[in-house]
Specification:
The protein is of the alpha+beta class and 552 residues long. It is built from 25 helices and twelve strands. The strands form four sheets. Strands 9-8-10-12-11 form a five-stranded mixed beta sheet. It has a three-stranded antiparallel beta sheet with strand order 1-2-7. It is globular.
Length: 552
């Protein structure tokens, strides 16, 4: 047995302790980020303004499992349609709420776990592929602080000294938030993506777990470190791959791409790892097919570039990736062979995001770019450490280069830090919400005239339509259902035909509030003249389809 000196042992212990301290810092940061953007207190949801829209979809999904009955896996804001959305993360949140945790703690616990685990694995893989702990830390920083040219727009608009610092620290709006405000820089590269899409870091962490044994087999420098417990990893990888499409379809697709290319690049891995990953892919196909039928994949060039020409494409990515546009080729040329293969796979993700519309809404391709950035961060971190340690003459440029890759991300942090939080009363604080839970079946379907944070959804009941965007972005025929509203709310109807339509569409109740969001004439409609089963006041009534149709 090789003897280890006492001083060497102390050094190893110190380094291990530093790693645990770094892990605790990641957990503390993750807890602050998640709990500062969502919480639950005194019967109110506490939601940051940046998360307002996304959580109006997440909360009904959670509550459809924890308060309602969604055993048939409908999308809760487009009832009687098979779930297109990767729901498993929010199902787990619902189960924690059923066990007694309030929804804020349940969601934040899993969110913190997912983000901490993702960042920790980014660190571990960065350390593995470079052989240096500093590279792992740098990779985490490069991922969390984006490289876009937002700082150019900010400085151009706030160049006066010293007001620029005051304006930066008090920043409440994102400098760029494309495509919604028409900006050339998109909104998917800052912390907002992790706080709003809580399932995303969790699913990315699962993907990194899946690829860890393959990376370790290639990058571990000591033969003993390459070995894994195949029995444990077999069940772990099989389980993750089978469930991953239900957490995030994009993470599953990227995992498959990585596995296929890594085996092509490293045929020596076939003997030991092929059966593990082959059967993982085989057994996971049914899970993927569950969603694939509604993906609506089509060819489309340029992602969110406003001009789809080559010049427009180049301009878009120059503004969104910044210095990486020039640094990327340098990283590929100077990286060691195994790292070049990681860079190639990152390029595949980039090309896929820019060549196909993978869902109804093109913005959803951002997940491929987010993962590409993680891969590129590993190469960049290795490059920074390597150049610095070789004491090359140009190493003085590294701080400038590093700042250009992170400055926009630092600026984008302040709108989240300075964001205000609003309160939304839970269903228990609403007469309508309490009535819905007490008097309607958990799997009831409502047609409502208001949508976001409606007591019906907060009480776990499903709705026939949403406000429009969520259902459309998931590929549901939202416009077709909306065309039925004129018939449902007509002034004159054939009662039997009306009841047949309600039965055909599976609608149990109509929860009507004046004025309606959709431009329909409710007050002169036939349904408004019927006897409601619940009336909060003259402008808020609920009508039972069964009670009305019983007389016809």
């Amino acid at each position: 047995m090789k003897k280890v000196s006492f001083s060497t042992l102390l050094k190893k212990i110190r380094l291990i302790n530093l790693e645990y301290i770094f892990l605790l810092l990641l957990v503390a940061f993750s807890w602050w980020l998640m709990s500062s953007t969502f919480g639950y207190q005194d019967g109110d949801f506490i939601i940051a303004s940046r998360a307002w829209s996304d959580f109006s979809a997440h909360i009904p999904l959670i509550r459809s499992f924890s308060v309602g009955d969604n055993s048939n896996l409908d999308y809760p804001q487009f009832a009687n349609a098979k779930m297109h959305y990767h729901y498993l993360f929010y199902f787990l949140v619902a189960m924690l709420e059923k066990l007694g945790l309030n929804i804020g703690l349940a969601l934040n616990f899993l969110s913190v776990f997912g983000l901490s685990l993702m960042l920790w694995l980014i660190y571990k893989i960065g350390k593995l592929v470079s052989g240096r702990r500093k590279a792992g830390v740098l990779a985490v920083i490069l991922v969390m602080f984006n490289s876009s040219l937002t700082y150019v727009d900010f400085i151009r608009e706030n160049w006066a000294w010293p007001d620029i610092w005051v304006n930066l620290f008090n920043l409440k709006e994102f400098v760029n938030f494309g495509p919604w405000n028409g900006d050339h820089i998109s909104a998917f590269w800052n912390w907002n993506i992790w706080t709003n899409q809580r399932h995303l870091p969790f699913s990315f962490a699962l993907m990194l777990i899946v690829i860890w044994p393959l990376l370790k087999a290639v990058f571990a420098k000591v033969e003993e470190d390459k070995k894994i417990n195949l029995k444990i990893w077999l069940w772990l990888i099989w389980g993750i791959m089978i469930l991953l499409p239900f957490f995030n379809q994009a993470a599953y697709v990227m995992s498959v791409i990585f596995i296929v290319f890594w085996f092509i690049f490293h045929p020596q891995l076939w003997a030991e790892y092929a059966y593990l990953y082959f059967f993982a892919l085989l057994y996971s196909v049914p899970s993927f097919v569950f969603f694939w039928g509604n993906s609506g994949v089509s060819l489309e060039f340029g992602y969110l570039a406003q001009e789809k020409s080559l010049l427009g494409f180049a301009s878009y990515w120059w503004w969104n990736l910044g210095v990486y546009c020039f640094l990327g080729p340098v990283l590929l040329l100077t990286a060691k062979p195994a790292l070049k293969k990681l860079g190639f796979i990152a390029l595949v993700y980039f090309l896929l995001a820019n060549s196909f519309r993978l869902s109804a809404d093109m913005i959803n391709n951002h997940k491929l770019i987010n993962m590409m950035v993680i891969f590129v961060a590993w190469l960049a971190a290795d490059f920074f450490i390597k150049v610095w340690q070789k004491k090359l003459k140009l190493r003085w440029l590294l701080p400038v280069l590093f700042l250009s890759l992170t400055l926009s991300g630092i600026m984008d942090a302040f709108p989240i830090i300075n964001d205000y939080r609003g309160r939304v009363p839970d269903y228990e604080k609403s007469r309508l919400g309490r009535w819905v839970v007490a008097e309607t079946a958990p799997d009831s379907i409502f047609l409502t005239t208001e949508f976001m944070y409606h007591p019906v959804n907060l009480a776990g009941r499903k709705t026939f339509i949403d406000y429009g965007y969520f259902a459309w972005s998931l590929g549901y025929p939202s416009s077709e259902r909306r065309q039925l509203l004129d018939k449902i709310y007509a002034a004159e109807v054939d009662p039997q035909e009306w009841c047949d339509l309600m039965q055909e569409q599976g609608i149990d109740y109509l929860a009507i509030s004046l004025p309606p969001v959709d431009k329909i004439d409710i007050e002169n409609s036939w349904i408004w003249q019927q006897q409601p089963v619940f009336a909060q006041d003259q402008n808020h009534k609920v009508f039972s389809v069964a009670a009305i149709c019983r007389t016809y």
